[in-house]
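This section describes the prediction task in plain terms. A model, or a person checking by hand, is given the sequence of a single protein chain and must write out its three-dimensional structure as a string of tokens. No templates, partner chains or ligands are provided. The sample shown here is typical of the held-out split.
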Amino acid sequence: MIAQALQAAEDGKMPTLLTIDPGLRACGVALFEDGELLRAGAVRGPREGRGAPVWAALSAGVEAWLGAQAPGVVVVEQMQVHVRGKADPDDLLELAAVGGAIIGRLAAVGWVVESARAATWNGQVPSEIRRTRTQAWVEARGWTERADMDTTTRFQQDVWSAIGIGIWRLTGSW
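The expected answer:
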């Protein structure tokens, strides 16, 4: 399966691309095929709790969301500590574990795994500007209905971020 993704890249085809913005209660996910957004949405996890049961539930949810999708490349946003940031270090550890659980689960079934730091894929552009740019990119291609935003405002941001990671991975810039 890994060989299929690598062969597609060598043949000049874009392998299937799954991009993920991990969260403690939901993950934003976006699926692309040949550079086209197929679908995006939020994979919800348990409403409470922390640790391995939550990580396992979220990774299982992502795998279920994929269904019978053939493996390709998965890019998961990598957590980073900001010296002046407001992020709780315990939350960052939880998010890193969610990302690791997803990568471990998908790598086991043939996905080629990658990660990208937020500063790399979005250049530290404020979230509202990123969201507006990402929405414009999706709308310009007529793919708005492919982004399932039937979730909370907070989780919608995760979906837009997952799509943004995909734009960055596909185009080399954002």
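For orientation: The beta strands are 17-21, 26-33, 36-44, 73-78, 112-117.
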